[in-house]
Amino acid sequence: MLIEADVWRNERGEENGGQVWFQLKNENLLAKRDVLDFQHVPGHACIYNRDHSQLSNLLGIIRFRTGDETNQYITNRKAWHEKSPARDLIRLSGFYDKSIPELLHYFSIGRLPTTQKAQDTPTVREFYILDSQNEEYSANIAFKHQQILEIVPFFVHPDFQKTAESLKSLCRVPHYLRYSPAWSMGNILFPYPMHLGKQLIEDHLCILGVEV
């Protein structure tokens, strides 16, 4: 099961019709990684354990975070004063944080898009779009850097909790679903089924004239 963290953790639930899932918040997820906590839901106040018979076929739940909630960079040097050239990642890339082994944080980075002006050059990589307008590159280049998607699995089936590689294999499923060999302009942000679902909802709301 794939779920976006955005909106669902809002304390007041004002962006989601009053519906919230507090377990998705960072301070709760580690302690409750092996349960589903719905105690706050009226008429359905309960906690599901990982060994619940009706959930035995659920491999796990993956929480997504994007945009300004996620670090949009990775370090490429061991010390800040080390002189290493900045660069984009040309291919679809995955990284993971080992600081909390009990709750794997996997970071999916899309491949470098094919744009009108090549970005992955020593000259362009050091500039930002808001640099001096006199600079030949920074004022004219359209930056379309890859977006980092944070993938955190929890409520994982015991068979996939045995090794770190098992957890990473779950994370790689939505990671690879961001990419298709038929695309040349980079990657979609969310895995393809979620991408289609979001676009379908937006199209239907547009047809019905519903403003959100």
The rounded Rg comes to: 20 Å
Distance between the termini: 25 Å
What is the string of SSEs from the N terminus onward? EHEEEEEHEHH
Total beta strands: 7
The overall pLDDT average reads 79
Into how many domains do the coordinates divide?
2
> Beta-sheet strand percentage?
5-15%
Give the biggest beta sheet.
5 strands, mixed
Alpha-beta content class:
alpha+beta
| Secondary structure: helix percent | 10-25%
Cα shape: globular
The quaternary organization reads as: single chain
Order of strands in the sheet with the most strands? 1-4-7-6-5
What are the segments in which pLDDT stays under 50 over at least 5 consecutive residues?
137-141
Helix segment tally: 4
Please write out the topology:
Elements: E1 2-4, H1 26-29, E2 35-37, E3 47-49, E4 61-65, E5 93-97, E6 105-109, H2 122-125, E7 148-154, H3 164-176, H4 192-208
Parallel strand pairs: 1-4
Antiparallel strand pairs: 2-3, 4-7, 5-6, 6-7
How would you describe this structure in keywords?
alpha+beta, 212 residues, 2 domains, two-stranded antiparallel sheet, globular
Describe the fold and architecture.
The chain has 212 residues and is an alpha+beta fold. It folds into two domains: 2-111 and 146-208, no CATH class; 113-144, no CATH class. The protein has helices at residues 26-29, 122-125, 164-176, 192-208, and strands at 2-4, 35-37, 47-49, 61-65, 93-97, 105-109, 148-154. Strands 1-4-7-6-5 form a five-stranded mixed β-sheet, covered by helices on one side. A hairpin with a 7-residue loop joins strand 5 (93-97) and strand 6 (105-109). The radius of gyration is 20 Å and the shape is globular. It starts with a strand and ends with a helix. The relative contact order is 0.16.
